[in-house]
Amino acid sequence: MRRFSLVLSLIGAAYLDPALAEEACPNPQGALGVSRIVEIDAKTGPLFGGFTKYEKEPRFLEPKEVVLTFDDGPLPKYTKPILDALDKFCTKATFFSVGQMAQAYPDMVREVMGRGHTMGTHTWSHPLNLRALSLAKAEDQIERGFAAVALAAGQPIAPFFRFPGLSDSGPLLAHLQKRGIAAFTVDVVSNDSYIGSPQRLAARTLDQVERQNGGMVLFHDIKASTAAALPTILTELKKRGYKVVHLRSKSVFEPLPALTAELEAKRLTAEAKKAGPKKGEAAAAEKPKLVPFYAAIAASNLEAQSEPQVTPLAPEARERVHAGGTHATASTPVASPDEAAGAVTQPATPARRKHARKRHKPDSDPLSLSNAVNGRW
Ligand SMILES: [Zn+2]
Fold first, then answer.
1. Homologous superfamily of 26-255+291-334 in CATH?
2. 375 CA to centre of ligand 1 in angstroms
3. Which of 77, 92, 159, 244 is the most exposed place for a label (fewest CB within 10 A)?
4. CB neighbours of 67 closer than 8 A, spacing ≥ 6?
5. E-only strand ranges, the chain
């Protein structure tokens, strides 16, 4: 209860009282903490992380540095304990939330941001494979996801995006560049979509972190095993000398105003329906409260503590050339034929999970692109 009221007091606050910050970080010396902040200027549409066949930015992480990322949420049942674990270790992460999930749990989106984490997006409805959609539909998925998460947040969010299944493409990367969005793939796959045992998940994640000597780690905040394993993973990272780097955006994302207005109108209509005919009319007559996207992202509780060193990162504009030397297009997918056939899996539904389990080979090389699109993320 105390934690809950603390969190409420943080929402929308421009700063955090140092006494409260201390409470949020009970053991700053012993905790994993944040070793430095990398502040990314996304205006040229950079592409980060190892899992892509497109020309990417050089790795900005030093050996033994990790970035913690959580996809597919928010889902309060698991997002909350994950936030508690991150707080206990005084560390920060980046969340790539799904638009529909954010609309379903807007309070959770605000809580993630209120607790000092960075909010990026992961499409509107997590389609199986953006490359399998028309370019217009895929772009709408990206834009609608940003508009929905920002609306739920009630404050500007970072122009940070992760492709579901890491299914990037030349034309979609070009769209991100045009819109000043940074794309993030991954370096380390926890495989939490498929590992139910927290012990096994912790062991596997740490093993992969060791193999890559750090990197951007992919988790999902919709998984029970992730919530249960995270304290062990963070304890071990600290013990083994790893450092957490927190990503921050230099600028905020500006959603398309038409999409924001459309989503807000739908929300008001839904609210009006729920409220019944009389109150409903009043709600429907209410003017949409659009988010002031020109504003800066509110200072996080990270800044209330002594702020770690900030490394600015402003990659130059570059053409996203496919590593094969040619430009890939939406009609020439770069990954496996399975993916082109739409075999990727959205992690949320049990039926899909069952289907994915059948296809999935647990011992296959985790660092292969075809795994990304064969039902893993
Ligand atoms: Zn996902």
1. Glycoside hydrolase/deacetylase (3.20.20.370)
2. 10
3. 77
4. 61, 93, 94, 215, 216, 217, 244, 245, 246, 247
5. 36-40, 47-48, 65-71, 94-97, 118-121, 160-161, 182-184, 188-189, 214-220, 243-249, 309-313
CA 187 to ligand 1 center in whole angstroms: 15
Nearest Cα residue to 169 out of 319, 369, 320: 320
Give residue 8 CA to ligand 1 midpoint distance, Å.
28
Rounded-to-integer distance, Cα 81 and Cα 87, Å: 10
DSSP 316-343: PP----BTTSS---TTS-SS-HHHHTT-
Q: How far is CA 32 from CA 93, 212, 222, 291, 358, in A?
A: 12, 19, 23, 34, 38
**Centre of ligand 1 from the C-alpha of residue 278, in Å:** 40
- DSSP lists the bridge partners of residue 47 as 183
More confident residue, 11 or 152: 152
Distance (angstroms) between ligand 1 centre and the Cα of 73 equals: 9
Per-residue pLDDT tens over the stretch 151-198? 999 999 999 999 999 999 999 999 999 999 999 999 998 889 889 999
**Which candidate, 177, 174, 206, 176, places its Cα nearest to that of 189?**
206
Token pair listed for 294? 């020109």
Distance (Å) from CA 164 to ligand 1 centroid: 4
Type of residue found at 125: S
Per-domain boundaries in the chain:
26-255+291-334
Q: Which of 68, 76, 75 is nearest to 33 (CA)?
A: 68
Higher pLDDT, 274 or 354: 274
User: CA 336, CA 51: separation in Å to the nearest integer?
Assistant: 14
Of 288-292, 360-364, 366-370, 372-376, which one has max mean pLDDT? Answer: 288-292
Closest CA to 216 of 63, 65, 38: 65
φ, ψ for residue 144, nearest 5 deg: -65, -35
Q: Are the beta carbons of 54 and 321 closer than 8 angstroms?
A: yes
Q: Quick check: helix, strand or coil at residue 89?
A: coil
Q: Does residue 37 have a pLDDT over 60?
A: yes
Q: Where are the beta strands (DSSP E) in 188-239?
A: 188-189, 214-220
